[in-house]
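Quick log. Single chain, no ligands specified.
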Amino acid sequence: MKQDQKGKPASRPIALTAVVTAGLIGAVLIGTGVRGEAPPPSPPASESIAAQGPDESARQTPKPSVVTAPKFQNHDVEQDSTNHSPGFTSHGLIMDKSQPTRLTIPTIDVDTDLMNVGLKNDGTIDVPPLLPDAPAGWFDRGPAPGQKGPAVILGHVTALNEEGPAIFFKLGALRKDDEISVTRADGEVAVFTVTRIMQMPKPDFSPMDTYGNTDDAQLRLITCGGTFNKKTGRHADNIVVHATLTSTHPA
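-> predicted structure:
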């Protein structure tokens, strides 16, 4: 995959169907342990489901994770102009589609360009490059941030060959009510408020909870977390942040 921080041309946004197959796994991003660094932060214990994994001693180059693609349906933003100000619907603030260009999360020092990621030839979800300076990636087969439905942004927790923490290394340190801003090509900034931070073993990842259609504008940030299993070359957990669009302002 080419590393293009400007991203590929935006595709027609589509949302996930309300029915997602039970066997669908999440956007499992990979990374290896970082030499001399503490493990990535975790959400509060009340929002985590502890993973049980072997404590391996040998290091191993991370292996690409196979990520089955969700089922989709065509999706158009439905604006209800009756008794609502422009941009508002009966389900809250909704924005038109626009290419996201930058992600900013001040509380965890994230300030990154956004590239587009789509589907590989085998139908699995693509991910950004495994490099320390790789940007986060917007999954361009789903809604754009600010549109109705769950917009999905993926990022690595650590980089290949122990080259250091990646862009979402601190994602688990987010807390409820923290703000996430997404700058868009239309000159608007979509501001989301964190409502939930979950860490769970990868087998317990819930596609419906993460990708299922919503009536309002939502955001999902996804990375890996927990113990790195040197035997499999993968982290044991996924960290998923849920956030809701709460305001907009000019860039």
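Helices lie at 207-211.
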